[in-house]
Structure formats: C-alpha cells, structure tokens
Specification:
homodimer, alpha/beta, Dihydrodipicolinate Reductase, domain 2, 2 domains, six-stranded mixed β-sheet, 13 helices, 12 strands
Chain lengths: ~325, ~325
C-alpha cells in the first residue's frame, strides 16, 4: 500500500484526486494499491478515514477542507511514502512549497511536485537531499504540462549528449504571438483578448515578461547539464515590445516570431526570435513544444498542452508510477 | 557484466557497436559494464576474444566477419543475456530474424530488435514467449527510428486511454509528398529525384505502397490495444496515385496531403489524407511524427528522424538500458 499526502488542493491537486479515482484499476495493476492518507491546503486539511470523493465534494462546496490542521503540520506529522506537492509557485523564495519538499525529503519520503518554485530556488540542494535520503524527487509536471520533457531528457536520452534544447514553454505568450501573427493586431489588444478568454492573467507579467518560461528553462537546464542555475542566470526578454510590423517583416520572409527558451552549455535565454514558418517550433495557440538537439538521435521534438488541470495531473501521476514501477 | 550477442551487422548493428564504443563510460555508469561476446550476420561471425573496433574494421574491409559460424548457430550456442536482433526485415514470414528471436526468448535471454518482421508476423506469440520466460522483448527501433513512440505509449502514457494514434511513419513517402507539395511535380518525377538522393529504393514499392508504414502501425496498435493484428488487417492505400492537381485543390483550402497511419480501437489504416497546413503532422522532408490522442493528457506529439544508422542504433541502445536500469 503506497501512502500519499497531497499538499495544495487547487486545480492540480484536485485533478490528481480525480485521476486516482478514475484510474484506480489500471494504477493498481501497475504499482499496486495507492491510498491518500491526507490532503492539505494552506488553511485546512482532511485526514484519517475519508473518501477521495468526499474530499473533492467538501472542497468544492465549502472552498476548504474540514480540519484546521495546516499543510505544514500535515507534512511533518503524517506517515507517508510520497508527498505530492502542488502548492502555488513562489518564484522568488520557493515559498511554503520549498519547506514542504525539504521536510518530506529529510524524513525519507519521495516527493512529486508540480511546483516550479522549490526547484528554481534550490535545485541542487534538493537533489542532494533526495540522494542523501535515498528517495526520489520528481518534477515532470513543472515543465510543459503533459509533455514528457523531463523523462525524455533524463531517461530516453540518458546516454545522449543533448547539445541544446529549444522550447516554447509558455502557452500564454504563444497564444498572444500566434494571434498577432494571424490578425496583425497590436500586442495590447491581443493581450486583452487573451485575458477575456482566461488565457492570460489580470496581471500578465509573470507570463509575458518570460519569467514562467525562464523558470521552466532553469529546471530543464539544471536537469540536463547538471547545473545549479537560478532565474537570474537567464537572459530574458518578454514579448511586450513585439509589434505587428515585426510580423509583417517576418512573414514576408516566411518566418514568424515566437518566444523561444533555449539552453545549451553556453546559453540560457528566453527571447522573442524569428522561427521559420515550417519549423516544428512555429506552433500556434497555447501549445508547448520542446526540441532536443542530440549527438546520436538527431533532433527530437515533443509537443503538447503545456498546462491544464488534467494534463498537469497526468504528469504528476506518471511520476508516481515511475517511482514504483520497476518495469517502467 | 551484461553479455550481448548482435545478429545482423549492417547499418544498425554497426551503429550500435560504434555507440557502445563511443558511449562506454556513460553506459557503464547507468547499467554497468556491457560486453559483446559475438557478432553474426547471415554468412559469418566473430566471437571469443575480439575488440569491437577490430570487428568494425574487418567488416568494412572484407564485407564479412572472420568466422564461418552462422547467426543461427551463434544464437543457439553462445551464452548471452541480451540478443540484439538487427537483421533485414522480412515482412511476409519474419524470416531468419523470427527464428533468432524465438530461440533467444526460449533460452531465457532478453531480446532487443530493430526488425519489424518478427513483430508483424508473430506479435502475440513472441510477447507471450517473453512473459513465460520472464524476459523482455524490446522494439523501440522498429517504429520511428529515434522517436520514443513505444516507450511513450507503454510507459509514460501507461495509465492513459490512448483514443487514437496518427502518424507519419515513412520518411520516403513524406519526402515525396512534401516535394510534390512544394514543386507541384508529378509523382514519378519526384520519385526519381528521391531515388537519386538515396531516399527511395530502386524498387520503391515497400515504401510507396504504404507497406512499411502499415508494418509499423501494426506494431504500434498491437502494443497500445493489446491486439494481435497482422499486415493484412490494415486498410492500405499508397501514394502512387496522388497527383499534383490534388495538391492544388488542397493547398487552396490550406491543407496538404500526407500518408497518415492511424490506429484506434475501430481503425487500422494507412492512406493519403488531407492535413491542415498548420497541423503538427504537416511535416516536411524525411521526418517522422506521431500524435497520441489521450483521455487525460490531450494530444501529445513526438517528431524526429524516422530512420538512419545512428538514430536507429540510439533506439536500440535505449532499450538495452531500459532492461537493466531499474531507476529508468
């Protein structure tokens, strides 16, 4: 019986619980029975004898869980095999999430996280802590939603030299740029449209300034090149100054403009760049994509939904399975 | 010490040997030392105390290996952990390759193959044989070269419902169709160009009639849907009748034409189809791509070189690592 604690009960946490319910049989076949022994958010929790359905219903109805015990206490007090950490990203200091991850690793529990904060702030520290305690720290969900970029880099391409990785790692920026390409509208107008559609936040700066893409790039680069890079190591230019006229010039030469995150041994940058119209990274809408340039496998591209409740929860679940499925 | 026998010493076999030499250190770190105890092709072999470099040089110089022992005997007589089977695909009856795979599985050795023949002819029989003998039969290299399609389906998406898979699984057809799209030349003329470039064979029927794509589709579908489909179960139309005029009509509506292999619970077909110009499968040149439509992860696309000596050898090596790397 694998015992999970889930911290953070927003979209991703709830999505995971829905997946655990829906996929119970197939999960059982692959890694055996899984039991969620506690769920906590910043203000409330549920533990002991509860059903997952009940937890979802209470959270949806009341906006909180029935017990007053905080996530911090749950992480310290419960006896679990895996901490699933889905709390909100705090890019500056890792926030509470970083504390939860540290606590879990120190007590010898595996951690699966969808939270970029802890990894951007303390990548090497956390990896060493996991190694020292002989547990795994998994984070497929932090980069590219359901796209298997971390597993591709760490496992399938384990023996390859990854010369560079270029990616479209932020769906909001890609939506805005592809709409600008199609309609030749100014940035501000397309941003407003994206906000109305719920694709961009009221304060869009985290996305449009390239911070989100840079955070994902830091995680990818640290993984691939064994670095301890931080957000401040990324050369970063957002998309707010891209003009419709720039698209006129680009399209005339069969190019478009996309926010490209690139990592190599020499480079760590997120900038708007010209991309040939028929290039695999010239994708449209909110899709994400990543292109690995390798020494022996040529270029390998993956593409998929970079965000979304069930997509991100799928990545979290794939990590849980990966910890326990020796045949995987 | 993991002991390999390599059967088939053409492009893929030689590529693997080059990789084993070049990547010795990193392979050692991941799965420990690997030793090739014999290499055989249909007419000759090398075994005992030999160096991999020596084997490559002799084969290149003489076109054969020094000993007269045949592959069949080597597979029966040597004491190996993994048979790497890279002999030429015989799509009708599996050829000698099928016999080698059967022999190795029966004696309790793992098999890694780049040969579609055995899997198209006897998928379920071989899978059961592997299971019964508690060994693995791995075949990433049979579909899409270096693209990790089999691992994506079997592992990362293990708990997902794959509603359908659509792919461009033959680089020759894709090259011909994308050249027809660009130049609006007739099929025969583009085929000739492809033959001159070495992209199409002198007898191109295996590719242009969709047989190669159908063979890969059978392997994918059997893997994903747990079938025992054969080549004859695939509805198949080649590309020889696609006209430049068809491209005129398609392009006018922002579509192109590609040879799409599609599998779902209801469908198994390889046919030229209209694809929107901005669709992830509207790729050009000899690239391959596969799009998995899933229940919880949305659409996931992978793209890469579908053939090539080192690309295919990379897939073979990834399988060998996968057998032994419990952390992978």
């Amino acid at each position: 019986m694998i015992k999970l604690v889930i911290v953070g009960f927003g979209n991703v946490g709830q999505g995971l619980v829905e997946l655990l319910l829906e996929k119970k049989n197939v999960i059982g076949k692959i890694i055996g029975p899984v039991k969620v022994i506690a769920i906590a958010d910043s203000k409330s929790s549920i533990s002991g004898n509860f059903s997952l359905k009940e937890a979802l219903e209470i959270k949806k109805r009341r906006g909180r869980l029935p017990e007053n015990r905080l996530a911090r206490e749950v992480v310290e007090e419960e006896d679990y095999d895996v901490l699933v950490e889905t709390s909100i990203t705090k890019i500056d200091d890792g926030g509470e999430g970083l504390k939860y991850v540290r606590t879990a690793l120190k007590r010898g529990s595996h951690v699966v996280t969808s939270n970029k904060g802890p990894l951007v702030v303390a990548f090497r520290e956390l990896m060493k802590l996991a190694e020292k305690n002989n547990v795994k720290l998994m984070y497929e969900a932090t980069v590219g939603g359901a796209m298997p970029v971390i597993k591709l880099a760490k496992k399938y391409l384990a023996f390859c030299d990854i010369l560079s990785i270029k990616g479209i790692l932020n769906g909001t920026c890609n939506y805005i740029l592809s709409r600008m390409e199609e309609e030749r509208m100014p940035y501000g107008q397309v941003l407003k449209e994206a906000q109305e559609l719920g694709i961009a936040e009221a304060d869009p700066s985290y996305d449009v300034e390239g911070i989100d893409a840079a955070a994902k790039l830091v995680i990818l680069a640290n993984t691939i090149y064994n670095l301890n890079a931080k957000l401040s190591d990324v050369e970063r230019v957002g998309i707010t100054k891209v003009s419709p006229e720039a698209f006129d010039v680009a399209i005339e030469k069969n190019y478009t403009i996309r926010l490209i995150a690139e990592a190599s041994r020499e480079t760590l940058k997120v900038t708007p760049r010209l991309v040939p119209l028929n290039h695999p990274l010239a994708i449209r809408g909110t899709l994400n994509a990543a292109m690995f340039r390798t020494d022996t496998a040529g270029d390998i591209v993956v593409m998929g939904r970079g965000a979304g409740k069930m997509e991100t929860a799928t990545a979290v679940l794939s990590d849980i399975l990966d910890i326990y499925d020796s045949s995987s």
